[in-house]
Design goal:
mainly beta; seven-stranded parallel β-sheet; disordered N terminus; 1 helix
Length: 254
């Protein structure tokens, strides 16, 4: 295909000079626009990244509606998944008002995601969080689920930071996991893990913990395999029945 722009699937982002938020991009005669494998004659550029490169803020509330645009706190959307799916370029900030939000969240590949809850214990997502090939920062969010076989947060090929978050299962079993990381770097600061079989599990990954509590209601605190590393920083408490399980060339540093 001559004169083609190829965007790597891990990034999914291209800068087009002269194209601003809300612009309509059209293809000339004999040309095509292809996005995520879909050929289109026209494409609207969502109003997410400002001309100065700043983030657009998207507001979400339990009193909102997914038919709203979410661009102000008086027109919030209802579902975090719907908001992420609608506004899915590389840069976006999502603000959740206090409340309970049922449903899973799968973050699209290549997205740079920021999620801020209104208060530390005021925002709960009752579902599973899946992050792949992304960068994400999540603050003031409780992730909770009751399935004995579930993994609350499943991370692969990503860089993810959690701050002031809580991971909570209904019961501890050998099969349920709080955070599972594969080929990733995960930073955990001022967080808590309760009633979980394995609080943090890593394969070929690095986990950095600071001022974080793994409660005695967890069976295993940190499980490492395939040359993973866990760096346990100041103020971290690991009260799990089995604090660490290390295999296949993995290491724990304090």
């Amino acid at each position: 295909m001559p004169n083609a722009i190829v965007v790597p699937s891990t990034e999914g982002f291209v800068t087009m000079p002269g194209v601003t938020a809300g612009s309509l991009v059209t293809a000339g005669s004999g040309s095509r626009l292809v996005s995520a494998g879909v050929t289109m004659d026209q494409m609207t550029v969502p109003n997410i990244v400002q001309p100065d490169g700043s983030y657009e803020r998207i507001f979400i509330s339990t009193t909102g509606s997914d038919s709203n645009d979410g661009l102000t706190n008086t027109t919030p959307m209802f579902s975090l998944q719907a908001a992420v799916s609608k506004y899915r370029p590389r840069y976006a900030q999502f603000y959740l008002a206090n409340g309970d939000y049922p449903g899973d969240l799968t973050v699209p590949n290549g997205m740079v995601l920021q999620v801020y809850g209104q208060s530390r214990l005021g925002v709960t997502m009752y579902g599973l969080l899946t992050i792949g090939m992304c960068r994400a920062y999540i603050q003031n969010l409780t992730v909770s689920f009751t399935d004995a076989l579930a993994t609350l947060v499943d991370i692969s090929e990503s860089q993810v930071s959690f701050r002031a978050c809580s991971m909570l299962m209904g019961t501890s079993t050998m099969s349920n996991i709080g955070v599972n990381a594969l080929d990733s770097t995960v930073n955990v600061t001022n967080c808590s893990f309760d009633y979980i079989g394995t609080a943090l599990q890593a394969s070929n990954s690095t986990i950095n913990l600071t001022t974080t509590t793994i409660a005695s209601t967890c069976l295993t605190g940190i499980r490492l395999s395939s040359a993973s590393q866990a760096r346990i920083g100041q103020g971290t408490t690991n009260l799990a029945t089995t604090p660490t399980s290390v295999a296949n060339g993995s290491s724990v540093f304090t």
